[in-house]
Amino acid sequence: MTESNKVSKSIRVLIERINDEEESIRREAVRTIGLLDDIEVTQSVPILIEKFEDVNNVRREAVQALVKIGRKNNGSILPRLIDCLDDNSTLIRWGAAFTIGSLGKYAKEDVNTIISHIESEEESSVRKKLVWALGKIRIRNDAVLDTLSRAAQDQKSEVRYKAAQALGRIGGEKAIDILLTILLNDETVNVRATAAEAFKKVRKQALNKRDFLIDALKNEKNPRKRNDIAFALFYLEDSYAIGLEELEKQLELDILPKWQRNKIKELLLKKKDLEKETS
């Protein structure tokens, strides 16, 4: 038996196991297919796509396997994934969107198609993955940023959350302005916190927003929103003291979610350690 036939046989065995009754066997078979190097592994792509409708753990393994196959083959599986965005199954569309985003740079030619599907997609679980995909592909143009601006006003907070993440990855003046709008106006704490954290990635581009954020902090009456503005200021390197001082005040009010309180405590400990090192 030739080496090629051995590989083909091993793939056939794995494909059979993909449909086993035991979840653990299906999951391991899917994972193993993604690790194979032979080009013939692309024969398994349609079956891996079908696994998007399996249970969550198998579904995610199918995404990772397809990402590995796609990277090995320079994104050649993308046309098939793009076609899946029109599938009747929400889970198939979700898996396709997740895989496309995970392939990042290979999907640059598909940005306009992704934008079109964001506008027409009715399921927020799929919409948020498509929005996330734009951030992973990281093309900065008006069409992308206009789409993310609309996504930042989506009725579903999970989509707005992904829009804030994507804007932080893409960066640029227009993205920063949209992030500021989210930071100051969104009514969901996780979305505002994500916009604030995005300033980590764009801080060098956003230093000219320092005074604007300081004024916003002074004028904002809502203590939770003040907290998020303070986080954004903290993430701008030259505003460390201003942001941290406000965060310390917010900690004393005892109104913040536990995860934010823990984050502030962590930052204060780092400050104390830094002061000890420099004293």
Describe this structure in words.
It is a single chain. With 279 residues, the chain is mainly α. The chain has a domain at 1-73: Leucine-rich Repeat Variant, CATH 1.25.10. It is built from 16 helices and no strands. Helix 13 runs antiparallel to helix 14 (223-235). The radius of gyration is 23 Å and the shape is elongated. The N and C termini lie far apart (72 Å).
Features:
279 residues, mainly alpha, Leucine-rich Repeat Variant, elongated, disordered N terminus
Summarize the structure.
The chain has a domain at 1-73: Leucine-rich Repeat Variant. It has 16 helices and no strands. The protein has helices spanning 3-18, 23-35, 45-50, 56-72, 78-84, 90-102, 111-120, 124-137, 142-151, 157-170, 173-185, 189-206, 210-219, 223-235, 240-253, 258-278.
Q: What is the helix fraction of residues, given as a range? A: over 70%
The CATH topology of the domain at 1-73 turns out to be Leucine-rich Repeat Variant
How many alpha or pi helices? 16
The fraction of residues in strands falls at under 5%
- Quickly give the structural class: mainly alpha
SSE order, one letter for each helix or strand: HHHHHHHHHHHHHHHH
**Uncertain runs with pLDDT below 50, 5 residues or more?**
1-7
CATH class group of the domain at 1-73: Mainly Alpha
Main sheet characteristics: none
For the CA atoms, what is the radius of gyration? 23 Å
- For the termini, the CA-CA separation is 72 Å
Shape: elongated
Averaged pLDDT, please?
88
- Strand runs, count: 0
CATH superfamily of the domain at 1-73: Leucine-rich Repeat Variant
Corresponding CATH architecture of the domain at 1-73: Alpha Horseshoe
